[in-house]
Amino acid sequence: MIVQEATFDAQVPRLLDGEIDLILGRLNPIGDLRGLRQITLYGEPVRLVARLGHPARSVPDLGLADLLAYPWVLPLERTALRSELEQVFRAGGLDPPGDLVECTSVLTVRTLVRDTDMIAALPELVARTDADIAPLPVPLETVRRQVGVTLPARRAPTPSARLMLDHLRRAAAEITAG
Prior knowledge:
Blueprint: H1 8-16, E1 23-26, E2 36-51, H2 64-67, E3 72-74, H3 80-91, E4 100-102, H4 106-115, E5 119-123, H5 124-128, E6 133-135, E7 144-152, H6 159-177
Parallel strand pairs: 3-4, 3-5
Antiparallel strand pairs: 1-7, 2-5, 2-6, 2-7
């Protein structure tokens, strides 16, 4: 088995061509992409996070506008999460951050947030697994992360993909159980 990290858009053609077995991650809309099906594993909120000693933590009544004073790490432009985050800014009458790094690697995002004054949006489970970063008290109520698997609709999973799906379902059940 080979695990590769890439954006959803980059992986879909490879999935449809049979080059890869499945896409695991945040479920992106597939409305106009024929030949795909999705299995939802679990859902979780997305939280704005910063390092524990971040100066924004001392701002009284911290709001989204206050966070624009700091650099950000955001997902790439054509990702669903980036679009949702930009909608949150616009709904608040704000322009999205201009001082930013675009990145889809969770490991890189965590490192940048932990080692700098950057702000990022991370799934709550990821944010809770790093003792050096923590959520900020600025809600993102409209942004939720549905995690799951995207598969070809007309091709049966390979034996290794079936084993992986079974493992993922068990792990998701543990996550949702508490």
